[in-house]
Amino acid sequence: MASRLLLQNLSKRHLLRSTFASRSASTLVLAEHEGGSIKAQSLSAVVAANSLSQDNPVSLLLAGSGSSLHQAAEKAATCHPSISQVLVADSEKFAYPLAEPWAKLIQLVQLKGDYSHVIATSDSFGKNILPRAAALLDVSPVTDVVDINGPRQFIRPIYAGNALCTVRYTGANPCMLTVRSTSFPVRPISVDSKSGGASISEVDLSTLDEDSVGKSRFMKLSSQDTGRPDLGSAKIVVTGGRALKSAENFKMIEKLAEKLGAAVGATRAAVDAGFVPNDLQVGQTGKIVAPELYMAFGVSGAIQHLAGMKDSKIIVAVNKDSDAPIFQVADYGLVGDLFEVIPELLEKLPEKK
Ligand SMILES: Cc1cc2nc3c(=O)[nH]c(=O)nc-3n(C[C@H](O)[C@H](O)[C@H](O)COP(=O)(O)OP(=O)(O)OC[C@H]3O[C@@H](n4cnc5c(N)ncnc54)[C@H](O)[C@@H]3O)c2cc1C
User: Fold this and answer.
1) 323 and 191 share a domain?
2) Which range marks the domain in which residue 131 is found?
C-alpha cells in the first residue's frame, strides 16, 4: 500500500485543493458500546469530526447483536447534536470486536456512504480495526491524531511523544484517522429535545460475504471487576512503578486509589515484574491517559512512560531521587520514600463515602 502522506512544506496549491475538499465533508465514526451505552471515548471521535469542518454531518456506526446494541443506538441518537444518523449493524458476526468482520463492515458502509473521513479512537478497539479497514479501502490511515488543522492536515506525536509532526493527507477518500480521546475532550452538550435526535437505520448486511468472519475466533473475555473507574477515562489515576518491589506492596497503590476513587496505573517495569496485569500499563505501549490528577509513586519518568501521561492536568510525583526525570513534568514533587509517604497518606485521607 503506497503511503500517501507528505510531511509539511507542501505548496499553497495543495492547501487550496484541500480547503475546497472540506466543503463536502461527511464523516463516519466507528463507535464502541457497552451495557447499552456508547463509550465516552467514542464521543471524542465525534468531537474530532467537528474539528474537520463546520459543515460535516456525522454518521455513527454501531455494530453488535441483541438488545444492548439497539439501546446504545437509541442513546447515541440523542447524545450529540452533530450526529445526523446512527447506523446499526446487527449480526452475530459483530458480537465481539474482531478486526476481520468489522473491517469488512466499514468497507461496506464506506462504499455505500462515500464518506470523506472515517474516524475511530486510538484505543485497542480502533487500533485493531481501522488499519485493516484502511487496507481494504486501499488508503493509508493517519494514526494517533492529537490535533486537527483542517480537513486534511493533522498533528500527531512522533519519537514517543518527543516531537509533534504535522502531516497532510493527500490520498483518495476516505481519509481515515485514529484520534487520541484525551486530546478531544467531550463537554456536556444538550441536544434539542424537539428535534428528536438523529435518525437510526439498519445497515443492509445481505452483501456481506460469508468469509468476512475471517480466520480469527473469539475465545474468551477475562476482566477483573475491581469497582474502580476505567483507566482510560478516570479523573484521578494513581500509578506505581518498579520501586514498589512486589505485587503485595503494590496493594498500597490500590488502597490509595480506592480512597481517592481513582483508577490504578503502572509502569511497564511494574507490569514486566508481574506486580499487576498489563492492561494497567500507562505509556507509549500502554494506555494514554490525561486525568485531572495523576499521582506517580516510585516512577522514574522514562520518556516512554511520559508519552502516556504528560497531558494530565496536575501531576504529583513521589520519588526518593531528586534528579528523577518525572520531576521535570510534575506540578508537585516530593522527594521521599514511598514506603513512608503512602502509609501516611492512607492514614490521613478519609474513607471514601
Ligand atoms: C519501546 C519501549 C516502549 C516502552 N513503553 C513503555 C510504556 O508504555 N510505559 C512505561 O511505563 N514504560 C515503557 N517502557 C519502559 C521505560 O523505558 C522504563 O523502563 C520504565 O517506564 C521504567 O519504569 P519505572 O519508572 O517503574 O522503573 P525505574 O526506571 O526502575 O524507576 C524506579 C524509580 O523509583 C524510584 N524509587 C526507588 N525506590 C523508591 C522508594 N522507596 N520511594 C520512592 N521512589 C523510589 C527510583 O529513584 C526510580 O526513579 C518502554 C520501553 C521501550 C524501549
Assistant:
1) no
2) 23-212
Residue 305: name the closest of 278, 275, 326, 335 by CA.
Answer: 326
pLDDT in tens, 66-83: 999 999 999 999 988 889
Pick out the residues of the known binding site: 242, 267-268, 281-285, 298-305, 319
Give the CATH number of the domain where residue 90 resides.
3.40.50.620
pLDDT one-digit tens code per residue, 160-192? 888 999 999 999 999 999 999 989 988 876 666
pLDDT band per the 50, 70, 90 thresholds, residue 14? very low
User: DSSP letters along 76-120, please?
Assistant: HHTT-TTEEEEEEEE-GGGSS--HHHHHHHHHHHHHHH--SEEEE
Q: Mark whether 88 and 167 lie in a shared domain.
A: yes
**Residue 287 DSSP class:** B
Of the listed ranges 52-66, 183-197, 296-310, 333-347, the one predicted with least confidence:
183-197
This prediction has a pTM of: 0.83
Pocket of ligand 1 (CB under 6 A): 241-243, 267-270, 281-286, 298-300, 302, 304-305, 308, 318-321, 324, 337-339
The CATH code of the domain that includes 274 is 3.40.50.1220
CA distance 10 to 165: 14
The answer to whether the beta carbons of residues 299 and 292 sit under 8 Å apart is no
- State whether 178 and 255 are in the same domain: no
